[in-house]
Amino acid sequence: MNTHHMRPTRIDLAPATREAMVELLNRQLADTLDLYTQTKQAHWNVTGPQFQQLHELFDELAGQLIGHLDLLAERATALGGAARGTLRMAAAVSRLPEMPAGFHDGLAVVRLLADRYAALAASTRAAIETATRAGDAATADLFTEISRALDKALWFLEAHLQA
């Protein structure tokens, strides 16, 4: 993204910093949107004796991701950039592995989601560091908020995998 494609704003960050943060936010937006759709896929296709509990948990986790999507997209636009948030845009650049198609036993799908939540949590922590180094405390704080929520979601998923 070039600065000339950025809208002007009175936010007191250098244009190059705003541009870099918009790119970072859009990378996280793509991964988060991908994780949202994969969590819904798990919600719809989970099977097994824990179906009801996991079906509800996955729906709750997907709902939380919607809130993260808004935070990421709205921060990108507040900085003068454009949010790239369609499914096709996200699929083209997501760094997460694809959720296998079909029906999945409860614990198998929990493992698949836990791996993906852990990957997004790790990239979110890296984004905190990147935003901090760039001097954008507000974007770093946004990523910190999302990081805490992802860690909590991962805790809920991993609790199902404990023997």
UniProtKB/TrEMBL annotation:
Gene name, Swiss-Prot/TrEMBL: dps
Family to which the UniProt record says this protein belongs: Belongs to the Dps family.
Xref: InterPro entries: DPS_DNA-bd, DPS_DNA-bd_CS, Ferritin-like, Ferritin-like_SF, Ferritin_DPS_dom
UniProt domain Ferritin/DPS: residue ranges: 23-162
Matching Pfam families: Ferritin
Signal sequence coordinates: none
Protein name: DNA starvation/stationary phase protection protein Dps
PANTHER family named in the record: DNA PROTECTION DURING STARVATION PROTEIN, GENERAL STRESS PROTEIN 20U
Molecular function GO labels: ferric iron binding; oxidoreductase activity, acting on metal ions
Listed CDD domains: DPS (cd01043)
